């Protein structure tokens, strides 16, 4: 029986396991995979940078010297400062997607990270609310470029055995940035002088600088190179990092041909662009999911805690600054651990079950939080107020096991190559738009109606369950190219690559570029 026949109806990871591959099963023992995965870890830095900012403002708001140096500002100006990253990111994502497709993933990441490093340094030496806001917006612009390209790059260059876990882990690293932010702000809380807040602000350059360093270890996306007609370079990269330079490797040849086939078919259908999302049923479905995911991850109730933890805790009687800072740090560590576990489990048990488990758990725990907050507000019950804290941990535990890892991974993996950066830019625009609304409106509404505002999030969480059930297909165990079949139907079948590796069909002929790989 030939190789192809022995594969039967296997797909996704099963197909990849069936091909001979010149790598060690344990990546830490393999030189090519060690270098690749180390570079991929650096690419997670844009998510960590986003997390650092998400926790930073909680810390700065309890540092007295920050308020003294920035000056007395109105609630509306404070809301703008808190939302500054969103103000910078919102108009940046879609142009960044075109830059990523035009100049490459690595160039766009380098541009964004450089802007963020410069903005952090400038912000650390500024005074006054408007200068601080301006540099926050500048940070948002840089984050927009980096965050638009880093997830596609990690997905497109990861080894097939690791792709799902690498993609799922990307956004889970958000919390490592939040942890560093909480630790730094706690450490500087009792420092004298303006460096008590300038030092945490300067640390905003740390993760973008790491990402710039990581670009020395990661190659350009083979899919992007193939889309630009640079197939020999793409094949060299696949061989170097996925088979330690073995150009006859079956897996590398399969990957190369599958990617070429997919991009050829996408180009034959239509010229890629934002309007392509409206031209086919499959693309409209993808666009809807990108928008829904962007809305859901901000309107699950998490936004009200992430940026306004202190007012939430004060509303239930926790008023000491160090107690609030300690709860914030503990919450970030809890979230980081569960997000990483959820990222791994999503690949083992499937995306849909975790989406549904996460939404159901958040709905139940948020109902309890609302009830406890109401009892504390109406009767002053200290026990009810204290009980809110563990339920905040339970709520976020359910949030991070799926909504954190899948917020980036799911949109990235359902999008075909030519629409991947553009679709992610739309998703991130919705995320930042919904986040800006949260950051600006939440404090006003919380001040006006207190715990009653939580009913809005109970309603949105309840609506998420049927949305996920009917609109979110399972993608577990499929290659990026095979996922297209889920949305576009069996007419878009990229498994022609198997024929090309084993002699059938019209061949792209990976071996025609293989000899050049020997000189790498």
Secondary structure blueprint with pairings:
Elements: H1 3-7, H2 13-18, H3 31-43, H4 45-60, H5 64-70, H6 75-82, H7 84-89, H8 93-103, H9 105-124, H10 129-157, H11 163-172, H12 174-188, H13 195-202, H14 206-214, H15 222-227, H16 231-243, H17 250-269, H18 281-296, H19 302-306, H20 309-315, H21 321-349, H22 351-379, H23 382-414, H24 417-449, H25 454-471, H26 480-488, H27 496-501, H28 514-517
Helix pairs in contact: 3-14, 3-16, 4-10, 4-12, 4-14, 6-10, 6-24, 8-9, 8-10, 8-24, 9-10, 9-13, 9-14, 10-11, 10-24, 11-21, 11-23, 12-13, 12-21, 16-17, 18-23, 18-24, 18-26, 21-23, 22-23, 22-25, 23-24
Short description:
With 520 residues, this protein is mainly α. Helices cover 75% and strands 0% of the residues. It has two domains: 412 residues, Up-down Bundle (Growth Hormone, Chain: A); 77 residues, no CATH class.
